[in-house]
Amino acid sequence: MDTVKSTLKFGLYVSISLTILTIITWGFAMIAVPPAGPYCPGDCMSYPFPDILY
After folding, report:
1. DSSP annotation string for 31-46
2. What is the rounded CA–CA span in Å between residue 18 and residue 54?
3. SS3 (DSSP) at 49
4. Three-state SS for 7?
5. How far apart are CA 30 and CA 24, in angstroms?
6. How far apart are CA 36 and CA 33, in angstroms?
7. What's the pLDDT at 35?
8. What is the C-alpha to C-alpha distance for residues 32 and 26, in angstroms, rounded to an integer?
């Protein structure tokens, strides 16, 4: 019975950690979009973004 309880507790902690990590990764992905395309407010780069490399 004790191993079942510790397994469930471990699963809970892993799922919460994975959820937090997913939210943080999604936030970084939204910030990392290059400034180009129809929604660029100004100082835009042209496709295929040659200015990023220099």
Report:
1. HT--S-STT--SS---
2. 35
3. coil
4. helix
5. 10
6. 8
7. 65
8. 10
In the numeric block, the tokens 């990590």 are attached to 21
pLDDT of the residue at 52: 61
Q: Kindly give, in sequence order, each residue whose CB lies less than 8 Å from that of residue 45, ignoring residues fewer than 6 positions away.
A: 34, 35, 36, 51, 52
Residue type, 39: Y
The pLDDT value given to residue 9: 96
Q: Which residue has the tokens 């100082």?
A: 43
Output the pLDDT for position 42.
Answer: 72
Q: What is the pLDDT of residues 1-54, one digit of tens each?
A: 789 999 999 999 999 999 999 999 999 988 876 666 676 777 776 666 565 655
